Amino acid sequence: PPTLYLIPTSSSITSPLPFRRTQDFYLTSFTQINCNSSLDIHLTWTIHQCQHNNCSSLIHLDPSIPLTSSDLYIPSRLLPLGLYQFTLTVQMTIDPHLTTSQALFIQ
């Protein structure tokens, strides 16, 4: 499977990265692929709101915000106050079973 790095780096549900609602923020990624056949990948960001250490509430953003690129831009005041899990999933087009995901927690 591809190797995925998110920037900013490490966070957890108990130690999320802080953000100010009044400021835009960006998440970016780097994907390393070791494949001789094909380098085609499919990227998908998902966002879940977390409550009581449960991140099951999927957030649907405005369709003008692309969720299928290596970078994710979140405009100020888009999300209400709270804890969120941002997950990037990378899937190899040549073999959908070659998939990897990384998550960041932001509050």
What does this protein look like?
It is a single chain. By secondary structure, the chain is mainly β. 0% of the residues lie in helices and 47% in strands. A hairpin with a 2-residue loop joins strand 3 and strand 4. It is elongated and about 45 Å long.
Keywords:
7 strands; mainly beta; four-stranded antiparallel sheet; single chain; elongated; 107 residues; three-stranded antiparallel sheet
Global morphology: elongated
Q: In whole angstroms, how far apart are the ends?
A: 30 Å
How many helices?
0
Return the string of H and E elements.
EEEEEEE
Low-confidence stretches: none
Strand order of the largest sheet: 4-3-6-7
Extended strand count: 7
Instruction: Report the structural category.
Output: mainly beta
Which whole number gives the mean pLDDT? 91
Q: Helical content, roughly?
A: under 10%
Short note summarizing the structure:
By secondary structure, this protein is mostly beta strands.
Write the layout of secondary structure elements.
Elements: E1 3-7, E2 25-32, E3 41-51, E4 54-58, E5 72-74, E6 83-92, E7 99-106
Antiparallel strand pairs: 1-2, 2-5, 3-4, 3-6, 6-7
